[in-house]
Design brief:
Residues 23-33 have a biased composition (Gly residues). The protein contains 4 helices and 5 strands. It has 151 residues and is α+β, with helices and mostly antiparallel strands. Strands 4-3-2-1-5 form a 5-stranded antiparallel sheet. It is globular, with a radius of gyration of 19 Å.
């Protein structure tokens, strides 16, 4: 009886540790603090058909502006040389938010988030985020499960 309790306790502790393994340690992409001046209203994709049909994200959105500034710095180009695509509401397959890093462990649950595609010098660059978190550059992007911008 005591042995079965010890085995049960060990299994429970192992499961708890496995569940918490994605909650700490190395920071996952998109795990940073959102911009301090962001608001829910400006972070969410709009239902405005003109934004979706032109393929252009809201340049006044702090997350979009931050991504454009980041890419301009990475490439050493002027922000005016960067074309802004749509800011899409997406569902990521897991906590990697479409930007997995080798040998990194991620939560294995669907994550609601966003994706922004920027174009500079003929090349596309992906920025991904979880929820309302800041958008982060994704060097090897994966496709999300679905997007709301196409609907």
């Amino acid at each position: 009886m005591a042995r079965s309790r010890a085995v049960l306790a060990g299994v429970f502790l192992w499961g708890a540790l496995l569940g918490l393994s994605g909650c700490g340690g190395a920071e996952e992409p998109g795990g940073g603090d959102p911009p301090s001046d962001s608001t829910e209203e400006t972070q969410e994709p709009t239902d405005d058909a003109t934004d979706e049909t032109t393929g252009s994200g809201d340049a006044d959105d702090p997350a979009v502006s931050a991504a454009v500034d980041d890419l301009a710095e990475r490439l050493g180009v002027d922000t005016g040389d960067i074309e802004v695509g749509p800011l899409e509401a997406v569902t990521w397959r897991d906590g990697a938010i479409g930007c997995p890093v080798p040998d990194q462990v991620y939560t294995q649950a669907l994550v609601e988030g966003r994706r922004l595609i920027l174009t500079a010098e003929g090349e596309e660059y992906a920025y991904h985020g979880a929820g309302e978190d800041a958008l982060v550059y994704c060097e090897t992007p994966e496709e999300p499960l679905e997007t709301d911008a196409a609907s």
